[in-house]
């Protein structure tokens, strides 16, 4: 597939803004920096951050086993997704394909960017209908969003379905792996060499425990990364975010321990939920939340809110009638949830 043909003409023609710190990339020791109109008095954040976030990328590259040249970072994955839209989708002309029930941001970003959304609902097992998806795509279908493990259903999609979609869809396939760190499935980022049209997004917001710093990750070919680099705001990941990410990524064993604790709590919660009289189905989860069907989702949601417990009511999502989504909390929080469910 020729990626150059998929890029918007305006983006192809763009001459990117060159920031002061882009032009000078040497080491900062012993240099006198009079290039960026900063306040020279040191306070920890008086300098512009590294626009290429090299230390964060180095650590991520080590942890994830993906070369730094194949990584782009954003202000949350939401910024990464927005960059992907702006690189490939011509407003009022192109369309994208989503597979509901799924993450709401794909639709919101399409609406902001004036891009048509084509939807193909997942089947009754929350798996993609591969034939229907490939049939509905046309020459203006630039992006296909595959969220696996999927939010809000929690399951991973079958590898052979994903592989066929990546192979046969004539546009960019974005695999959103926000929850991959809770799954024992191998990341599709390991297959970048096989598919030139593949983009994989991940985030530090979930397993890595850093939702507050806003750091999203994009893995793709060097060709796609260089397109996204052309259009990203120069200093899109701030200094405090980079510093905190570095500290946390350097203690990756702690994250892995927390993930294991969350997974064993998930198993315990699923077991306890199955004993609740008004819970009729608990869907398999490859993530840090579970989707459960109840007798009356809105009633149960309101009862929990009154007791001070906030969960997500997904009853209005296609295929999710009377479904509630529970994030796995600490053992104490999960106990409060179960005790409350038993009492209502
Ligand atoms: C939580 C979540 C994200 C994370 O977004 P950030 O902007 O990185 O916090 C991305 N995709 C899905 C499906 C999510 O559930």
UniProtKB/TrEMBL annotation:
Substrates-to-products reaction catalysed: L-histidinol phosphate + 2-oxoglutarate = 3-(imidazol-4-yl)-2-oxopropyl phosphate + L-glutamate
Record keyword Amino-acid biosynthesis present: yes
Pathway: Amino-acid biosynthesis; L-histidine biosynthesis; L-histidine from 5-phospho-alpha-D-ribose 1-diphosphate: step 7/9; Lipid metabolism
Pfam families tied to this protein: Aminotran_1_2
GO molecular-function terms, A-Z: histidinol-phosphate transaminase activity; pyridoxal phosphate binding
Cofactor(s) the protein requires to work: pyridoxal 5'-phosphate
Subunit (UniProt): Homodimer.
Name recorded for this polypeptide: Histidinol-phosphate aminotransferase
Organism: Wocania arenilitoris
Lineage of the organism: Bacteria, Pseudomonadati, Bacteroidota, Flavobacteriia, Flavobacteriales
Encoding gene per record: hisC
């Amino acid at each position: 597939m020729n990626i150059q043909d998929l890029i918007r003409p305006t983006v192809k023609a763009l001459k990117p803004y060159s920031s002061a710190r882009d032009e000078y990339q040497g080491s900062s020791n012993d240099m006198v920096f009079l290039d960026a109109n900063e306040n020279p008095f040191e306070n920890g954040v008086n300098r512009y951050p590294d626009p290429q976030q090299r230390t964060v990328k180095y650590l991520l590259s080590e942890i994830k086993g993906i070369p730094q040249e194949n990584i782009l970072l954003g202000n949350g994955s939401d910024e990464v997704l927005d960059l992907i839209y702006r690189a490939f989708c011509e407003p009022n002309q192109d369309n994208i394909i989503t597979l509901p029930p799924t993450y709401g941001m794909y639709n919101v970003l399409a609406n902001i960017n004036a891009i048509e959304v084509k939807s193909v609902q997942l089947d009754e097992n929350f798996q993609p209908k591969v034939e229907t998806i490939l049939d509905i795509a046309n020459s203006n279908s630039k992006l296909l969003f595959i969220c696996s493990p999927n939010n809000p259903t929690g399951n991973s999609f079958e590898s052979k379905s994903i592989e066929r979609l990546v192979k046969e869809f004539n546009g960019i396939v974005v695999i959103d792996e926000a929850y991959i760190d809770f799954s024992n499935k191998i990341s599709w980022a390991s297959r970048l060499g096989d598919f030139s049209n593949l983009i994989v997004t991940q985030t530090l917001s979930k397993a890595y425990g850093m939702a507050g710093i806003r750091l999203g990750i994009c893995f793709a070919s060097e060709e796609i990364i260089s397109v996204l680099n052309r259009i990203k705001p120069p200093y899109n990941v701030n200094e405090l975010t980079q510093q905190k990410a570095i500290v946390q990524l350097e203690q990756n064993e702690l994250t892995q321990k927390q993930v294991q604790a969350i997974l064993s709590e998930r198993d315990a919660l699923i077991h306890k939920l199955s004993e609740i009289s008004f819970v009729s189905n608990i869907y398999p989860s490859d993530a840090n939340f579970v989707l459960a069907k109840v007798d009356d989702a809105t009633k149960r949601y309101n009862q929990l809110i009154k007791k001070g417990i906030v969960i997500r009511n997904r009853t209005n999502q296609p295929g999710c009638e009377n479904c509630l989504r529970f994030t796995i909390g600490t053992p104490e929080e999960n106990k409060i949830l179960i005790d409350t469910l038993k009492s209502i």
